Amino acid sequence: MAKIRTIKPQFWLNESLAECTPSARLFYIGLWNFVDDDKGVFQWKPNRLKAQIFPYDNIKVEKLLQELVDIGVIKQFQYEGQEYGYIPSFSNHQKIDKRFFRSIVPEESLPDVNTASTPRAHHAGMEVEVECNGGGGEESLSDFEKTLQDFSDMRKKIKAPMTEYAIKLLLKKLDTMSGGNDNIKIQILEQSIMNSWKGVFELKEGGSTEQKKREFKSYN
């Protein structure tokens, strides 16, 4: 049975979803009405989903599902020979009346959500791992990679963790804005970290606060 769900204002500014087609974003909202109340699980039946969400439109739902998988907002898995999907962040954004909790599949059958917390992206021809959950290994990271990890940690703190796809987009945008200069990339990231911004923007005049601190120390 379809359920009433809520949409937070932040949804419309989600940078990862912004890379999807408008139809995929609308389809994603529609999915919420038809997932279970526990973990946001739904049966992976494109024809049924099309009939439920886009009954009057000639739309290929398979393509929309793939768009959402690509940015990490839904995951596909199998349970007892059947195909299912689920929304990892569902319980973070919906208030569910636990008196009517109903789960389609056992929680242990879901894909490991933690695998999405250590996305990998390519930077300067090599693979960079962003440890969203913290951890060691910082000794081997460059200053830029450490700052990128700090940015990812900040996004988690403001409850806007980054998907692998979002990180790839971020790196591409940083390359464009900085002309490939890692020092400028660091300043851009620090500017966003200091202001708790979800995105990255052109540097304000004078550079970031952290950059100014480094420059000040270099003269002492």
Summarize this structure as a short list of keywords or feature phrases.
Arc Repressor Mutant, subunit A; single chain; mainly alpha; 41% helix; elongated; 9 helices; 220 residues
Describe this structure in words.
24% of the residues are buried. The C terminus is likely disordered. Helix 2 crosses helix 4 and helix 6 runs parallel beside helix 8. The chain starts with 14 loop residues before the first helix and ends with a helix. Strand 4 and strand 5 form a beta hairpin. Helix content is 41%, strand content 10%. The protein has a three-stranded antiparallel sheet with strand order 1-3-2, with no helix packed on it. A two-stranded antiparallel sheet has the order 4-5. It folds into two domains: 103 residues, Arc Repressor Mutant, subunit A, CATH 1.10.10; 92 residues, no CATH class. By secondary structure, the protein is mostly helical. It contains nine helices and five strands, in the order ααβααββαββαααα.
